[in-house]
Design a protein that fits this description.
The structure holds 2 protein chains of 2 kinds. Chain A contains 10 helices and no strands. By secondary structure, chain A is mainly alpha-helical. The N and C termini of chain A lie far apart (47 Å). Chain B has one domain: MetI-like fold (Orthogonal Bundle), CATH 1.10.3720. In chain B, 81% of the residues lie in helices and 0% in strands. The longest helix of chain B is centred in the middle third of the chain and has 31 residues. The chains are: A mainly alpha, B mainly alpha.
Chain lengths: 243, 167
């Protein structure tokens, strides 16, 4: 342990910007960014699956509200959504008296809500596309087996739709990571927020922002490789034998 | 290309901040925020769209190009008459996606100090404590631009799909 800390101090010696202090800020930023992205993706995914099923429903009054939701959230910038939720949450009647207020007062939760709603809208459309492109033969086969609509959805359509949606969903995850950078405008200390702080303190834009860009890049590649691995596992049956 | 492609969007936030701060304040070349915003977004989306066009060019059937050559067309003419029109057909869906993302990315220039719709609305709502009055019209404006461009892209798609029998 002592070894590591002396090695670390040696590494940082003669460096005015990347001190243990500022690296601490970056670390906190990394934790915030990861939490924000991860939680919003999980919540968005949970929301998106039923919404995608509703969206591909034949009944107009089921699919139309979902279409409107995705249309609005995909048609407006995330920054606007974040502003509306962050500044607007105060004006919801009685919210300041409710038990939720201590939670909603912090910048983290409005940002989380905005990100969740945004990613849910995009994910819904991705899944809808995948559900729509289910091979007609598979559906007919399921019908021929006498499966009910629910059973068919659960056993036939959704599993194959998830697989087909995987590449697009991986892109969405990467996009979400990049989009999370705007959380710093609502006073949240995420990675970009940490970079801004370091920039403001040391007046060194290139060091502060390039370092943080490198961290984002590492995260992006980690996600990329994770999805490559998933695709390899889940789409194994589609690969040619000799490959 | 990979690096730009996947690292790209971070740039809008990090690099544009960087460009703005370093050129406008540090060195005092009057490199204004508008130019910084346009250059950064243009540069990044150049990478995205480059990737889209690359895929579309590869989707053009090789036989078409060979047929063009067999007619004695020069490579410039082959490009203009055969490869480009067919490429556009494949590129349009991706292009329209990119355009939608770009449209929403422009909202970020407000962060580097440019006075766009978003900044005006955000400042007004901060000053008056009426976020909905100012932010909702901006959201509607974005929706309108998105809808109009969707319509234009649909028409373009129709134009480039001529000869493909309503596929």
């Amino acid at each position: 342990m002592l070894d590591i800390s002396t090695w670390f101090n040696d590494l940082l010696a003669g460096n005015t910007i990347f001190t243990a202090d500022t690296l601490g800020y970056y670390w906190e930023g990394l934790v915030t960014t990861t939490q924000l992205v991860f939680l919003s993706l999980v919540a968005g995914l949970i929301l998106a699956v039923p919404l995608a099923i509703m969206r591909s429903s034949k009944h107009k009054w089921i699919s139309l509200p979902v279409y409107l939701y995705t249309y609005v959230f995909r048609g407006t910038p995330l920054l606007i959504q974040l502003y509306i939720i962050y500044y607007g949450v105060v004006f919801v009647d009685g919210i300041q008296e409710s038990f939720l207020w201590p939670v909603l007062r912090e910048a983290f939760y409005p940002a989380l809500i905005a990100f969740t709603l945004n990613t849910a809208a995009y994910t819904t459309e991705i899944f809808r596309g995948a559900i729509k492109s289910t091979a007609q033969g598979e559906i007919e086969a399921a019908r021929a087996y006498g499966m009910s609509q629910n059973l068919m959805m659960r056993r036939i359509i959704l599993p194959s739709a998830f697989r087909r949606a995987l590449p697009a969903y991986g892109n969405e995850v990467i996009f979400m990571l990049h989009a999370s950078a705007i959380a710093s405008v609502v006073t949240l200390m995420d990675l970009t927020g940490a970079a801004r702080f370091v920039y403001a303190r040391y007046y060194a834009p290139f060091e502060a922002f390039l370092f943080v860009a490198a961290i984002y890049l590492c995260l992006t590649f980690a996600i990329l490789f994770f999805f490559r691995y998933l695709e390899k596992k889940l789409l194994a049956h589609l690969r040619t034998q000799d490959a | 290309m990979m690096l730009l492609f996947f690292g790209g969007q971070i740039g809008v936030n990090a690099i544009s901040d960087m460009l703005y701060y370093s050129y406008d304040i540090d060195i005092y070349i009057n490199f204004n925020a508008f130019a910084a915003g346009v250059l950064t977004i243009g540069f990044i989306f150049g990478a995205y769209m480059g990737e889209t066009f690359r895929g579309a060019f590869m989707a053009v059937d090789n036989g078409q190009i060979e047929a063009g050559k067999a007619y004695g067309m020069s490579s410039g003419l082959v490009f203009r008459r055969i490869r480009f029109p067919q490429m556009m057909r494949h590129a349009l869906p991706g292009l329209s996606n990119n355009w939608m993302v770009l449209l929403k990315t422009t909202a970020l220039v407000s962060v580097i100090g440019l006075t766009d719709m978003v900044r005006v609305a955000a400042e007004a709502s901060r000053a008056t404590h009426e976020p909905f009055t100012f932010l909702l019209p901006v959201a509607v404006a974005y929706l309108l631009i998105a809808s109009v461009s969707e319509w234009i892209f649909a028409r373009l798609q129709k134009h480039y799909d001529i000869g493909f029998g309503g596929q």
